[in-house]
Amino acid sequence: MDTYVVDTHVLVWFLTEDKRLSPMADQILTQAEAGEVQIFVPTLVLAEITHIAQKNRVAVTIHQVINTINQGDGFTVVSFDLAVFQTMLTLPDNWEIHDKIIAATACYYKVKLITIDEVLRNSDAVETVWD
Questions:
Q1: Alpha-carbon span 39 to 28, nearest angstrom
Q2: DSSP code, position 96
Q3: Tens of pLDDT, residues 6-61
């Protein structure tokens, strides 16, 4: 089964049916809801969604996100643990810490990262999916 890590914006845009979500990302996340692919959701993504939802920057609550994760067979929350942290230390120093943690999760599990982030997409350090 294909497995991916999801970035914060991608998951929020999917749940809010935002037009900025690429067709490829939408297809993969729709497949995850049906249990056809596996999406790893880093705990940092949940923390970021909680933060932006509390500031009313998105039209989704963390409870809606958790419900989606619990209902879809293709979603698994993965922790920011020591192994992911050690992988993070190998990534470029000039990346923002949140991006490094999410990218390190993808690198550690050896899966593609679904992201719009240009810095990550233009790097050889992590394999990404968007278009």
A1: 9
A2: -
A3: 999 999 999 999 999 999 999 999 999 999 999 999 999 999 999 999 998 888 99
The model carries a pTM of 0.95
Decide if 10 contacts 17 (C-beta within 8 A). no
Question: CB 63: neighbour CB atoms within 10 A?
Answer: 10
The values of phi and psi at residue 94, to 5°, are: -85, 0
Give domain limits for the chain. 3-129
Question: In CATH, what is the architecture of 3-129?
Answer: 3-Layer(aba) Sandwich (3.40)
Per-residue model confidence (pLDDT) at position 109: 98
Burial of 90 (0-12, 13-18, 19+ CB in 10 A): exposed
